Amino acid sequence: MSSDVTSTAEPGAPRDTSRVAPPARRLVRAVVTEDVLDVSEHAAAVADPAAGAVVTFGGVVRDHDHGARVSRLEYSAHPTAAAVVEQVAREVLDAHPVDALAVSHRTGGLAVGDVAFAVAVSAAHRREAFAACEAVVEEVKARLPVWKHQRFEGGGDEWVGMP
Prior knowledge:
The chain has three helices and nine strands. The protein has a single domain (26-153), classed as Aldehyde Oxidoreductase, domain 3 (Alpha-Beta Complex), CATH 3.90.1170. Strands 3, 4, 6, 8 and 9 form a five-stranded antiparallel sheet that branches. Helix content is 25%, strand content 36%. The longest helix is centred in the last third of the chain and has 18 residues, at 126-143.
């Protein structure tokens, strides 16, 4: 392992001497959309010649919850949802030395296996990319005003995220 990598995401950490330029911190995408999401498309969107790591996350609709089979679900979003996603993305870019970030959350009807939440982050090093990706996922999940209406096989339903 090279000894010239001295950067961490912590404030006051030494400068990353392996870089020839500071992190670009580009926000490629921060949206809430009814469009189908593709995690690999998000990864391609954050590609950067300075990046030695691209980390992705795909939140996928699973076929079960609370011991019951999920047949489908629908996400509804508050009108401020897109602004919240963008705010989270910008905060993560400010806090982490990454080159590019793309994040999307889907609304509308989704089937089992569909991607509901896609994140991609590029950075010079894997540690920074993983940390920034995790920060985006956790902050969006904590702050995004969306509600999930799950439909179960055999009938029944549940709202998740309602106050």
